[in-house]
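Researcher: Going back to the complex we discussed earlier. I've cleaned up the inputs and rechecked each line, so this should be the final set. Can you rerun the prediction on the complete assembly and write out the structure?
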Amino acid sequence: MTEHAYLIGLLPLLSFVMIVFALRWKEKIASGFSIACILTGWVMSVTVLIEQLSSHSTPYEWFYKFINFPGFNLEIGIFIDPLTAVMLVVVTTVGSCVQIYSLGYMKDDPRFSRFYAYLSLFLFSMLGLILANNYFMIFIFWELVGLTSYLLIGFWFEKRSAALACKKAFITTRIGDLGFLIGLFLIGTYCHTFNYGDVFSQAASGIIPLGVLTAIGIFIFAGAVGKSAQFPLHVWLPDAMEGPTTVSALIHAATMVAAGVYLVARSMSLFVWSPEASMVVAIIGIVTSVMAATIALVQIDIKRILAYSTVSQLGYMIMALGLYGYDTSQGHHSAGYVAGTLHLMTHAFFKGLLFLGAGSVIHGVHTNDIRDMGGLYGKMKVTAVTFMIASLSIAGIFPLSGFWSKDEIVATTLHHPIFLFLTLLVAFMTAFYMWRLCFMTFFGEPRDQHRYDHAHESPKVMTYPLLFLAILSVFAGWVAIPWLPHGFSSFVYHGEIHHASPSWALMIISLTVALSGIGLAYLMYYKKSISYEAIGQRFRPLYNLFYNKYYFDELYQSILINPIMAIARFMWTFDAKIIDGFVNLVGWFTIVWADIKMLFDAYIIDGAVNGAGWIVRQAGHLLRFTQSGKAQTYALSIGAIAVLFAISKYEIIYLTVGWPTLTALFVTALLLLKLATRYFSADKQMSGSKTQED
Amino acid sequence: MLLSSLIYVPLAGMLLVMLLPKDNHKLIRWTALIVSLIPMVTSFWLTYDYFINHAASSAMAYVEGPFNWIPTLNVQYYLGVDGISVPMLFLTGLLSTISLLASFNIKVRVKEYFAFFLLLETGMMGVFAALDFFLFYVFWEIMLVPMYFLIGIWGGPRKEYAAIKFFLYTLFGSIFMLVAILVLYFTSEPHTLNMLTLIQTAPTLSHALQMTCFIFFFIAFAIKVPVWPFHTWLPDAHVQAPTAVSVILAGVLLKMGTYAMLRISWPMFPYALRELSFWIAVLGVIGIIYGALVSIAQKDLKKLVAYSSVSHMGFCMLSLAAFSSVTAIAGCIFQMVSHGLITGALFLLVGVLYDRAHTREIAAFGGLGVKLPVYTGLMVMFGMASLGLPGMSGFVSEFMIFVGSFMVLNKVLVGVAVLGVVLGATYILRMVQNVFLGEFDLARWGNLTDIGKRELVTVIPLAILTLAVGIYPKPLEFLMSATLQNLVNLMAR
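Model: Rerun complete. Updated structure for the full complex:
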């Protein structure tokens, strides 16, 4: 079966294509076909897992060269090792449950078939991401899950909040992908291949300089930060709750957001060479975890509490992997790799269950606000019981799944006291906020009688998946019981198999922490012997900070989005006014220049030509007077000349007159004469004198 | 004869259209469309045949000539294609037909419109097939005339301004090209205008002369691309031009600039290229970031797409600066093809909406996804393609460009260029959100109809090709790889 594992990914693609092109109008067949595909995929995934177990974890690889360049190629291929097999099972399991559950949840939606098409497309992308054998291919599917996440968050796109949330999710994760891309380019530049095995062997052989390796690690991790909603790119995930709850369960709790964790786990062979990169990973992980847990303490929207819980748990996994890389690079043994991947698996089941349970509650009471719920236990028993099982599991209560994986994570932090403290703090907060949620939703008096009266248990297609996931939430973690000889840690591991010896003390400590969290929630929200209002009043600033999510949205709005929009608008003005303005100025200047030339042409050049003719003509006019035939005129002329001679003779004028002055005098005289003649002729002929004159 | 037929069949078609009765619009439209099918099919067949028989070598295929045309000047009639011109001819053939089909809603002066359009196709085909400078120049200039009238007569409110700006701006660049061509002509011995000969001889010119010619050619081609800061004619021309003309403008005309760089100035002046490549990359990166930022600020749908072209062609410039990497140059050709398909489709789709709503203002819409599901699906798909989503051609080209240029160029510079990926997502998704998501204004847009059959026929081929190139780029890569290898060797001299 392993060599046919590509079919697991292709089946949902087939379902997508079929629904879009053939089954769009046949809702029942569309959803049925989609479910059949994913169930087949589930069976095949389980088979692959069994084969991996029995083949003693020999990885399987198949690839095809997609594009060839000298010394560089892009390939698509399939790589199956125990980690892949586990991920396949997780995704197809949750995927199947969600698809079946959606039959009930999305029943009356006008875009029912489209929903199944999107879900199928998502599963195709997610499975492709898991199956990929190289960084190029994982990036392709990485982006495609981003697309489907976008489409599904915005599934009810008429809601403005959903429209904004899907855009925010896509752009925020894309910022992380920017780093991922640069990481890929670094890999391409220094390794000339994207194949996992080749890249890792080059990293191990020390060909890549350490600085570059660290850079690659950090840049790739940036992708994981975006996808797994880690600080500081976590802001999109809570908003993503605008999508249908089943989508939140599948994509934003169990599978896609875990892709970042998977990526870090997959790249572990890079991180183990770079303690710096690993430490960055660990610190981001724990910071996210603590921050998200504190926010989850005070939220009132059932889905948002779960969303912040998801962010917090993902931070756990990331931290465990980071610490594993760090410890290994220092030559120590660490349980971090096993812890991170194990928690990834168990978390997928119980968080998927929590979301589906929340969906069931919302389906029943038509609100997300836990203040309007209460006392629902009696109305929806299956939902309540399964929800509480998941809550116990996530809180880490013995012997549920969550206990074992959380125990491993705590064990990872043993040599790092600050991490240990913070991890336990998060464990405490997790138990508290989960049970705050449980008590407020299912117990106590109904706070909204109207909603309570209309509440009802969900149909069987919705509760059966809940039961199935509840079973997994209890038992899935048992594969990692430390006393098991061939448990999870000898199946999914990195480097050498390392058995962590069971530590009673640790188990008791973490159990105590979890129980005290639940106990506090019990006292505050069930017994009400401690007033949460009083505590809220007492720590008002802290409460506000948590309630407003550390003001990250406001911060990003003012330091990122607004400036970018301002720059964009400025650039636009700059473009229109300065760059285009310059072009238009050149054009305008050319036109003006042409006008000047035209004027020059009309008045100076042509003027000179006309002027010459005019001068000759005027000279003619002038001379005409001399030839008038009147004796008086001749006499006057002779007299005038005589006077001139006399003047020159006696040198009355001592001026030396040059030709310009003479010319000017001549022209002036002509002008005067012209005026004079015009005056006289105007007298004689009232009109048309000019034509005649000219 | 194949290449000549590509060039002259549209010309003959133009003459035919001119002989038709003026008022029989239907006849004119269909004649033009059917005539344009001939070069389209020919260009498809050419691509196929080149792929099968010629792609393995970098030599020119389907060579015609060199015939002596004007012997006293040693001007030759010389045509031929290789791995970089074949995809362009394919694109020209396809987009011309699609644009003609998209022009069926032209109501005024129909005869002139279709005649000009066919003349335009002649010019475009000629540019991509010419191997003689004189011929190249003639086709390059011929194209301006129909384009000028197509924008100036059938355009939007500011059509005269846009048409003149386009015409003069390009002509301004052409003067520099002419000077550079003359320099090459007079420095070659014997005087020749044969591009292939000049590619061999030009690198022996003095460095100063190489630099001058390179810059002169660069100005001419950069205006066409357009490279920042020579880009401002583009938004005006795009916005004012009728839909089909915008498609041709974005799909084919812009590619001429980058094509000419790869065909002419890049291999001819390797010295100047080496000296200036960093600055070319800087211009490219500025174009990417700047175009994307300005797109974000746009309020007009068509202008947004126009500015996104500036950003996308910036990717081409970045890859052209990384001339020593086959991957980057291949990415450039991929980007040229992909931008032609995607932006062509986006312009078509914007036109579809404009025809119905008579406005392109983004803020005027909202929630159209409810009323126009098919149209929305296509628009979102091409939007995603435009922002470089895997599975579509834009991703392949961007990835190749980035990987290739990251290897050989300044890493910080390329890192800045990668920011364009996020900005690209921003302007596309903002547009999608504002136009298609959110609440639907039933009172205002209640009578909008979804995309029609004829419009679907224009867009679907582009969608199929976008997906095909994105999912399986190997054939296109094989088509050009031998040529590119040779080209990179030439540029590395």
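Model: Worth noting: The first strand of chain B starts at residue 61 and ends at 70.
Researcher: Good, that matches what I expected from the previous run.
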